[in-house]
Amino acid sequence: xxxxxxxxxxxxxxxxxxxxxxxxxxxxxxxxxxxxxxxxxxxxxxxxxxxxxxxxxxxxxxxxxxxxxxxxxxxxxxxxxxxxxxxxxxxxxxxxxxxxxxxxxxxxxxxxxxxxxxxxxxxxxxxxxxxxxxxxxxxxxxxxxxxxxxxxxxxxxxxxxxxxxxxxxxxxxxxxxxxxxxxxxxxxxxxxxxxxxxxxxxxxxxxxxxxxxxxxxxxxxxxxxxxxxxxxxxxxxxxxxxxxxxxxxxxxxxxxxxxxxxxxxxxxxxxxxxxxxxxxxxxxxxxxxxxxxxxxxxxxxxxxxxxxxxxxxx
Length: 314
Known about the structure:
Keywords: Protein biosynthesis, Transferase. One of its GO terms (cellular component) is cytosol. InterPro entries: Fmt, Formyl_trans_C, Formyl_transf_N, Formyl_transf_N_sf, Formyl_transferase-like_C_sf, Met-tRNA-FMT_C, Met-tRNA-FMT_N. Its EC number is 2.1.2.9. By secondary structure, the chain is of the alpha/beta class. It folds into two domains: 2-202, 3-Layer(aba) Sandwich (Rossmann fold), CATH 3.40.50; 208-302, Roll (Methionyl-tRNA Fmet Formyltransferase, Chain A, domain 2). It is 25% helix and 28% strand. It has eight helices and 17 strands. The strands form four sheets. It has a seven-stranded mixed β-sheet with strand order 5-2-1-6-7-9-10. The longest helix has 24 residues, at 162-185. It is elongated and about 70 Å long.
């Protein structure tokens, strides 16, 4: 079968590799977002998918808008059986969706209709979910609204970070995607409409999401810290310094005679304990501006935190 593959970030790389390695699949073109300039030197950076596609000697196509007439003509000339989309980053028009014989197939990192949108993995952890997964679906003009083909459930471990869950979902989703294409061609793939009233949404996130609100519960803050590690990272402020928190746990310490954000313990035996609106949070890995990420023991060896001092609350 001939396919056009559309994807951009690291999440889409395992699926590209799995499709490339399957003898029944021919990747005619890889479509990814245009190169971007970033950093102080404004250096040009390729997407993760472009890097992998070039390493595999695949034909790479890029466009700011894949729905333009000239780009659609290029896709029509390929005559693909499928257009496969994994975290591509552009909405596809009705005309483009009609190009492939078997349709446009998407891999999405949630159990749809839960967490439609661009950040389902982050939201699953931030919301304290114990279960998430992948969904393959037939694409339509809506965002993640198409009919479901297959779903696979993935357990979320108690201390799992978004980075760890991201990698697990990407690897398992790649196998699901290959199975989906083969079963569609064989005529044995299901088609299940989504229950729209049950839909929830995971909108695009930015760096501000990582700001810790100490008026939340210890469990909610712990989930936030996991849910923004490695990006955008959780942070709080103390005496004008922004401190990043990379690892935490909910403490069994029950002293609640402090205002949220108060450092109630800061020593080698107890670690760093902070009062929240409900419960106490233990900070286990921290980072000061310009410094390295340090386990709490190493952090306390080099930095003194005064008990009863408070992290800022905005």
